[in-house]
Amino acid sequence: MGVFSNIWDHPRTSAAGLLIAVMTIAGVLSQQGITLGAAGSGTVVTLAGALASALLGLLAKDPAGPVNGAGSQQSKLGAWALIALLLPLPFVGGCSQKTVAQNIVNWTPALQCAVASMDSAGELLAPADAKVYAAATAGFDAASNLMVAQAKAYLANPSASTLAQMQNQVVVLQQQVNTALLEAARIVNPSSQQHALATIQAVGTVVIAILALVQSVSSKAAVAQMAARSTVKLVDVRPYLDAEQAAEIVADHYGEPVAMARVQVAQVERSEVLAGF
After folding, report:
1. CA torsion through residues 231, 234, 238, 240, sign
2. Which pLDDT tens digit goes with each residue over 12-54?
């Protein structure tokens, strides 16, 4: 009876626990390939997990509760929402190839915009710095245009051949970004260096997002091959990255709070390092 009375006395706390349990079970089922049927372009399992995540977020923001314990209750729910976000994210992996392909294409306007901003950034640098910057970012336009074209080709035909082309190109672009960051770090003028690194990272944030999506529909062997071609690792360029800038880009793209995007960026970075990138 104590269990039931506790549920009655703390309904929001109990609801949060239930939603986290649903997300955890959905993740396990999805990783095991259990779908429980189709739901739109995804599965019943991924839909249940996504709904639980959304409801948990709403519950954590709800200011309702006893006056004396509202702050404490709110902080606990916020903490549990964060714990739920820190759980492994199976939902990308559980999505269909078509859904992932559309998500990749959705990122391409941001990629093109970031590359365009990078191209114009050299005009704001001193001549000597501009030369270093131009050399570091040479070839980005062609590589990004090819990435966009291949993403659209994969959306139109999510076959093994179009996926292989995209796997190769996203690694090429990721390596260009990492190499460019190392080169831009050689710029002596602090203001020029900061501006150069920020514009390159804007491209890199989008590329990492696309890389993560490509990985979600790739086999373990394919991911291992991609990582092997990634010679300049994320840990090599981490000192030159601004996590807050990356979070703001992700938050703007998905229309979500920056706090949530910070967690997602950290998760993706950790995942990429573990994968060998």
Report:
1. positive
2. 655 655 656 565 565 545 545 565 665 554 566 555 655 655 5
Taking the C-alpha atoms of residue 151 and residue 105, their distance in angstroms, rounded to an integer, is 6
pTM score of the predicted model: 0.69
Average pLDDT over residues 165-190: 95
Nearest to residue 188, comparing CAs of 118, 120, 123, 125? 125
DSSP class of 123: G
Any residues with CB less than 8 A from the CB of 105 and at least 6 apart, and which? Answer: 151, 152, 155
For the chain, the C-alpha Rg in angstroms (whole number) is 21
The three-class DSSP label of residue 38 is strand
- What residue has token string 């995942």? 271
Sketch the domain layout of the chain as residue ranges: 2-92, 96-275
Query: Which tens digits make up the pLDDT trace of 111-166?
Result: 999 999 998 888 888 889 999 999 999 999 999 999 999 999 999 999 999 999 99
- Token pair, residue 198, equals 């920020």
Q: 160 burial class (0-12, 13-18, 19+ CB within 10 angstroms)?
A: exposed
